[in-house]
């Protein structure tokens, strides 16, 4: 017997809720901020708008559906099912945080604070939720297939990201590795390597692209092409700087072999969910077969 569709509402703890968790009461939080020349009022107002939006979206879920909620910090422990429709209620970045845990489920982005969020990925208002959910599972529901980037280590560890994957040291040390394969590989010492998608081309990837005054064309979000940049490569008798940027098409992979005690790879700023890499391991980064299916 087929399961009824399930709406999974993804949200994150608000700044106001975090203040209350730290200070205990509204009054204590207000006093703390006032002593630093800030007011709690706007933070509380955003909290109430977000809470109201989440309640309105929950009420818009069809009565015949199941429903579940997951907070951003718990995404790595939540099991998404093939029958899920994922409703991200919050900011653009929350869509990226969620994407790596999905496998083709449709995603609806609901903007809880129009005008404050860019609305690149959370494209819809709360009032659109009922209509979007009703049509989400219909054939021809449409939407975009946004390209994702993946890193696969030689011990089968796999990492997905919507914006970018960073490979580098876990702190402020120097990353040492060999980049490339075979005789063309180059030993490098740097601050790490960034591999980004067209969705990520509005963020960290774009800042590196601009800093380099790169002649490479930034990819579009649905284009199966990635750009990569080495951050602050250091020239020395043992390390080079000739392989510091490039693009990856289709099945092409950027290969990196670790020559440090420990490097990490993480996606979309989620450092707590990093892949650990040790001396001698190889990781390959490229376009993922999995894409984010974003409705609307």
β content, as a range? 25-35%
CATH topology value of the largest domain: Tumour Suppressor Smad4
* Proportion of helical residues: 10-25%
Structural class, judged by helices and strands?
alpha+beta
Coarse shape: globular
Mean pLDDT across the residues is 93
- CATH homologous superfamily of the largest domain? Probable inorganic polyphosphate/atp-NAD kinase, domain 2
Please give the domain count.
2
Radius of gyration: 21 Å
Sheet with most strands: 10 strands, mixed
Q: CATH class of the largest domain, please?
A: Mainly Beta
Q: What is the name of the CATH architecture of the largest domain?
A: Sandwich
The H-and-E topology, N to C, reads as EHHHEEHEHEEEEEEHEEEEEE
What is the strand tally?
16
Number of helices: 6
Distance between the termini: 30 Å
Low-confidence parts, pLDDT < 50 over ≥5 residues? Answer: none
GO molecular function, one term: NAD+ kinase activity
Organism: Streptomyces mesophilus
Protein name: Inorganic polyphosphate kinase
């Amino acid at each position: 017997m087929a399961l009824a569709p399930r709406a999974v509402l993804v949200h994150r703890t608000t700044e106001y809720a975090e203040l209350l968790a730290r200070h205990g009461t509204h009054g204590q939080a207000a006093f703390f901020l006032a002593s630093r020349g800030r007011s709690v009022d706007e933070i509380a107002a955003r909290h109430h708008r977000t809470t109201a939006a989440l309640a309105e979206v929950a009420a818009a879920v069809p009565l015949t559906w199941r429903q579940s909620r997951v907070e951003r910090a718990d995404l790595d422990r939540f099991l998404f099912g093939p029958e899920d429709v994922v409703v991200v209620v919050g900011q653009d970045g929350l869509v990226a945080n969620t994407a790596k845990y999905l496998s083709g489920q449709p995603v609806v982005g609901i903007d809880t604070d129009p005008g404050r969020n860019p609305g690149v990925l959370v494209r819809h208002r709360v009032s659109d939720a009922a209509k979007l959910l009703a049509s989400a599972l219909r054939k021809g529901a449409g939407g975009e297939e946004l390209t994702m980037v993946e890193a696969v280590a030689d011990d089968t560890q796999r990492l997905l990201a919507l914006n970018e994957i960073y490979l580098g040291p876990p702190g402020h040390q120097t990353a040492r590795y060999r980049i490339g394969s075979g005789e063309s590989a180059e030993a490098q010492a740097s601050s790490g390597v960034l591999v980004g998608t067209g969705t990520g081309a509005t963020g960290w990837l774009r800042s590196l692209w601009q800093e380099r005054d790169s002649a490479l064309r930034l990819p579009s979000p649905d284009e199966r092409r990635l750009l990569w940049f080495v951050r602050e490569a250091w020239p020395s008798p043992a390390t080079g700087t000739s392989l510091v940027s490039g693009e990856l098409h289709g099945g092409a992979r950027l290969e990196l072999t670790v020559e440090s005690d420990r490097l990490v790879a993480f996606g979309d700023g989620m450092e707590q969910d990093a892949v650990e890499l040790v001396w001698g391991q190889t990781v390959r980064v490229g376009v993922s077969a999995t894409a984010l299916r974003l409705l609307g």
